[in-house]
Specification:
This protein is mainly β and about 200 residues long. The protein has one domain: Porin, CATH 2.40.160.20. About 15% of the residues lie in helices and about 55% in strands. The protein is built from 2 helices and 11 strands. It has an 8-stranded antiparallel beta barrel. It has a two-stranded antiparallel ribbon with strand order 6-7. The radius of gyration is 19 Å and the shape is elongated. The N and C termini lie far apart (about 45 Å).
C-alpha cells in the first residue's frame, strides 16, 4: 500500500512539473509532433510477434530541441500512449525522456532515457474467493512507475530543416512495483515525425 501511495505521490507532484516544462516549449515553432504504431510484448520482440500475436500500442509525442550542433542534438520527448496486451493487461501511460541524436546526412540514430507513469488494468475480469463464492472484483487500475530506454534509427524524407521523418524504434520499460508476471515491456515499431507549427 505504501508503494502505491509513493507512486501516486510521485505522479501527482513530479509529473506536473516535467510536463509543464514541456508544455511551455510548445510555443516554440520548432516543436515536432511524433505519432508511433508499435507492438508490445513481455519478452524480447521478434518478427514473429507481428505474424502471430500482435499486441497493439501507440503514442503521440511532442519533441523539442534543447541543444543542437551540426552533427548531433539533445532533445526533450514527452509522449502519451496506450498498449493492450491480450489476455493480460492494458494501460494508458505518460512518459517524459531526455534524448540524444547523432546525424549522418539524412539518417540519424537516437537514444532516450525516460521516466513514466502507467495506470494498469486487467484485460479480463478478475475474481476473488470469499470462502464460499467467487465474486468479481472491480478493477480501478494499479499505478505503475515506468523507467524506460528507447533506441532507434530515423530518416529525413527531405534534405531540408524541419523535414518530416520516419523512424524504426525499440523501447523497453519496466513496471515498478513488479508483479507476479514479467513487468518488462518491449515495444518495437515505426513512427512519423513532423513540424506542424513551423
Amino acid at each position: 500500500m505504501n508503494c502505491k501511495f509513493g507512486i501516486t505521490a510521485l505522479f501527482l507532484f513530479l509529473f506536473p512539473t516535467l510536463v509543464s516544462a514541456q508544455l511551455s516549449l510548445l510555443k516554440d515553432k520548432n516543436t515536432a509532433v511524433e505519432i508511433a504504431l508499435l507492438d508490445e510484448s513481455i519478452n524480447f520482440p521478434t518478427f514473429r510477434s507481428f505474424n502471430y500475436s500482435y499486441n497493439p500500442a501507440c503514442y503521440i509525442a511532442f519533441e523539442n530541441i534543447l541543444k543542437e550542433k551540426k552533427q548531433h542534438d539533445w532533445h526533450l520527448h514527452t509522449s502519451l500512449g496506450f498498449y493492450y496486451h491480450k489476455d493480460w493487461q492494458f494501460a494508458p501511460h505518460l512518459n517524459i525522456a531526455l534524448g540524444y541524436r547523432k546525424h549522418i546526412n539524412r539518417f540519424n540514430g537516437f537514444a532516450r532515457l525516460g521516466v513514466g507513469y502507467a495506470h494498469v488494468f486487467a484485460a479480463k475480469a478478475t475474481y476473488n474467493f470469499d470462502g464460499s463464492n467467487w465474486k468479481q472484483v472491480k478493477d480501478f487500475g494499479t499505478p505503475r512507475f515506468q523507467p524506460s530506454l528507447s533506441v532507434g534509427i530515423g530518416y529525413k524524407l527531405k534534405d531540408v530543416p524541419y523535414s518530416p521523418q520516419v523512424s524504426l524504434m525499440w523501447s523497453q520499460s519496466i513496471d515498478i512495483p513488479l508483479n507476479i508476471f514479467s513487468g518488462v515491456h518491449h515495444f518495437v515499431g515505426v513512427s512519423y515525425k513532423f513540424y506542424p507549427f513551423n
